[in-house]
Specification:
By secondary structure, the protein is mostly beta strands. Helix content is about 15%, strand content about 60%. It has helices spanning about 1-15, 30-45, and strands spanning about 20-25, 55-65, 70-85, 90-110, 110-130, 140-160, 165-185, 200-210.
């Protein structure tokens, strides 16, 4: 999977304009999960509070091109989080995908700032069950959820030119995911109150081609 992602990023950078890798921290409301899973843990013989520690981390890639003067692209990411108490443990796994549009402002060659808008969403699963030491029990619950929305944000990037028309850069992007629909949940009854809405902070590495400059007489 990661080999395919790497090849996709390289292809985007070489052929379409830019591509890169990113790590996203999503500051979602994990408190609601901790409260729900603490209730389940104590209902099944435990005494501790269940604890997911934030933020939710996503590892992914992106790519796109310049449609002068706008950047158009997209990307995706995967995230996994584990938590436990004395009787129960749980896994949260998710995937997100998005389309991205933005207008870069580059006052100097080594820096740009970019207002941007993402359109997309994510899907996730919760699975909570007894720990392996309680293997004689069949307690297990799962839920599947999804949401679609937008994320307005701003990005800053420092870059260096390493060939006549190629650059490498490090970027930092802040955005806020606003769901249009969802969260919708499926699976066992009484799902936890959880969604992807909230503040996202991304840091990443990007490679790309400078957009062609118009020829002037």
């Amino acid at each position: 999977m990661f080999r395919a992602l790497a090849l996709t990023v390289v292809a985007c950078a070489a052929c379409f304009g830019y591509g890169g890798f990113e790590l996203t921290s999503s500051f979602v409301r994990l408190r609601t999960l901790n409260e729900k899973f603490t209730e389940l843990n104590r209902g099944w013989g435990g005494s501790e509070a269940f604890m997911y520690h934030g933020p939710l981390l996503w590892l992914g890639g992106h790519g796109g091109g310049f449609v002068s003067p706008v950047m158009l692209g997209g990307g995706g990411a995967l995230g996994v989080k584990f938590g436990s108490a004395d009787s129960l443990e749980a896994e949260l796994a998710g995937a997100r995908a998005f389309l991205d549009a933005g207008y870069p402002y580059a006052p100097i060659d080594q820096f740009w700032a970019r207002g941007c808008l993402e359109l997309g969403g994510g899907v996730w699963t919760h699975h909570i069950h007894y720990k392996e030491s309680f293997s004689d029990s069949d307690f297990s619950r799962w839920w599947l959820g999804w949401a679609v929305g937008m994320a307005p944000g701003i990005e800053v990037m420092g870059r260096i030119r390493y060939q006549s028309d190629m650059f490498a850069g490090i970027f930092l992007k802040a955005s806020w995911f606003i769901p249009f629909t969802g969260p919708q949940s499926y699976g066992d009854s009484d799902p936890p109150a959880f969604g992807l809405g909230g503040f996202n902070l991304q840091v990443g590495l990007r490679f790309g081609k400078y957009p062609p400059r118009p020829f002037k007489m």
